[in-house]
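Holo model, flavin-adenine dinucleotide. Inputs:
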Amino acid sequence: MSFLNKEICDGDNPDLTEERRTATFDTDRMAQVIYGSEKFAARRRQITKSISRIPALQDTKPLAFMTREEKITEACRELDVLSDHWEQLIYVNDEEEALHLHREVIGMEGHPFALHETMFIPTLVSQASDEQQEKWLGRARKREIIGCYAQTELGHGSNLRKLETTATYSPSTQEFILHTPTITALKWWPGALGKSSNYAIVMADLVIKNKSYGPHPFIVQLRDEKTHQPLPGITVGDIGPKMAFNGADNGFLGFDHFRIPRGNLLMRHNRVEPDGSYLKPPHAKIGYSSMVKVRSRMAMDQGLFMAQALVIAVRYSAVRRQGFLEDKSQEVKVLDYQTQQHRLFPSIARVYAFIFCGLETIQLYEKLILDVNKNGDTSGMADLHSLTSGLKSVVTHFTGQGIEQARMACGGHGYSMASYISEIYGVAVAGCTYEGENMVMLLQCARALVKAVELVEEGHPEKLSPMMAYLTKPSVTVDLTVGPEAYVKIFQLIAKKQAFKATEQLHKFMVAGDSRDVAWNKSAVELTKASRLHTRLYILKTFIRRVESITDISVKAALTDLLNLHLNYELLDVASYALADGIMSSTQMDFIKNQLYSSLEKIRPNAVSLMDSFQFSDLQLRSVLGRRDGHVYQNLFEWAKSSPLNQSEVLPSVTQYLKPMMEKSKL
Ligand SMILES: CCCCCCCC/C=C\CCCCCCCCCCCCCC(=O)SCCNC(=O)CCNC(=O)[C@H](O)C(C)(C)COP(=O)(O)OP(=O)(O)OC[C@H]1O[C@@H](n2cnc3c(N)ncnc32)[C@H](O)[C@@H]1OP(=O)(O)O
Ligand SMILES: Cc1cc2nc3c(=O)[nH]c(=O)nc-3n(C[C@H](O)[C@H](O)[C@H](O)COP(=O)(O)OP(=O)(O)OC[C@H]3O[C@@H](n4cnc5c(N)ncnc54)[C@H](O)[C@@H]3O)c2cc1C
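Output:
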């Protein structure tokens, strides 16, 4: 069967055209599944098309050849152009459309609005009272002010309870006095803080009458709105170049007894009255909601990062020919090698799985904020916190691995910045650290798991949340040939065993006399393993649920192949647990391996179209290897010629050092 995919174009590299003709599904239909709805998939295409008609937004110079200052300047120029076209390009206040616009135009390297859109505005939405929103939200949305989220300090990022920046209430003036008492209390890392933002949400320890109430969010003006100079009492700057993400000015910030009005404490959920009395929030951790928001996005965003790397690697693998199979008259596409497929296809499956989880967790967060803001209902917070803590950790870890494999799959050219994969990798792996270091967040997930195991052990399984219900499942013998549900059952047994083992170890240390904290630390590796398995089970179940719900037959068939690959790959990856506990036999292992290899063959004809379906434009991909038209070699040559080193035949360094050195050596 051949579909008239919009991707097919006769001027393209014939190897890619051939790949597109073999696809068994329509990429527009697949895009609807990826992006959650027909409407949004169509809007994305429309926005991409509109952007392509704005000459000032077409890339001029490759980012790889720019200095950091040039990158930041270029990002600001593009933001300015975008701002002029904002209302024509997207529905105002539609977050997904705004993110698409940014991804498309500015790319991966970050930009001065990255935290404005992702944390500053969301914090105002979730934490500011109606009155405070009236004052700041409209201005922020109109981009009259630029904000960021300043929480992490030089000395503390993970352990928020020990943040040192203080906000001391002065009842006589009805002000908070922000202060940085030590060098380690300097805010350090916040994106766009250094040079771009003129406002920040600052997380500081609220102190009233010498009593500390822990971290609370304050809105703080940092710079003069006319001159952009830092206000007196504020020290602010850029922390320097990073592994990637260098289009963003991550910054430092210090306060010297800097005064802000009482009304700058965000007071939707808690209040400080003029006399200094404190009204506490309905949930102690409600002030952490912006972090939960970003974590709830990360499965989607990381999935899209890995998708970009895979579009590049898969397209390139279809045009790169090297070596022979049976026919010695023509070299084969490297995509035909089983090892290449094994390197790339499981990651394609993970991309789809992560994105399906992201679609779900983004909605869960939106629902939670509605529940909290409208009804004061905080009952969903604990579950979403543990789910997103585990998910961000697992997803970022596998995304890093998948992108690195994509780079290696491109051989030498993958190592060139022309591939753009190194930038994608650098940006993606930052996610292992930001929004909570992965080990720390796996241990947060483990807290919920241990509590659930304890409930089962205490005879209260009815109190388990639906996500934990598998902890009560009895051991059974499973016939893998019956389909996905059998894989779920085995995975559940593996995850359950590990959760009970880790909890047992924790309890054993406590019985032997260790405090819970010490016992926890002695069991931490086992606990993180339990969290990973628990999270991978959620990912697997979400993938199955999503595929089952698809109505387009050909799209469903293609995704079923991908799902089967995922099920077999995941189970094989955790087989050591299953074999050790006698959950699976070696015969079942052989069955899984064979299923996996036959999945690779089934997916092969659809590989390019599974990645084309993400509908990334060349502008967004910024990759010579991943070009939609597949004309890689001539463009690599053009790219290399544009290197600044090639703008003169003899470099000053040669004249100044190498020539004299060679002359000296002749003497
Ligand atoms: C980034 C996503 C958006 C991307 C948009 C992509 C756009 C793409 C566009 C273009 C491409 C451009 C390039 C890409 C751009 C990427 C953007 C970069 C954005 C970077 C953002 C980074 C921002 C940050 O990093 S902000 C700082 C984040 N910091 C942290 O996460 C700190 C981690 N630490 C903590 O959260 C806490 O300290 C803690 C949770 C570890 C512990 O807190 P605690 O000490 O106060 O609590 P306890 O451990 O004692 O627990 C007590 C109890 O409370 C429960 N708990 C804790 N937190 C919560 C919560 N949030 N909700 C509910 N319950 C909570 C805990 O579990 C305990 O419960 P028990 O029942 O067990 O007692
Ligand atoms: C690109 C980027 C952008 C960022 N943007 C922002 C921003 O916009 N705003 C902001 O406020 N911050 C931002 N951050 C900071 C980021 O949120 C923190 O770096 C992150 O939360 C990790 O904290 P940390 O640096 O203190 O790590 P640390 O906690 O010092 O981690 C070091 C090691 O200690 C381990 N460790 C720490 N505590 C425990 C524990 N309890 N149990 C076991 N192991 C532990 C960790 O696992 C890790 O291996 C950004 C960081 C990056 C890299």
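Residues 115, 149-152, 156-158, 189-191, 245, 250, 430, 433-434, 436-437, 439-440, 443 surround flavin-adenine dinucleotide (ligand 2) (CB under 6 Å). The longest helix spans residues 338-375.
Archived with the compound record.
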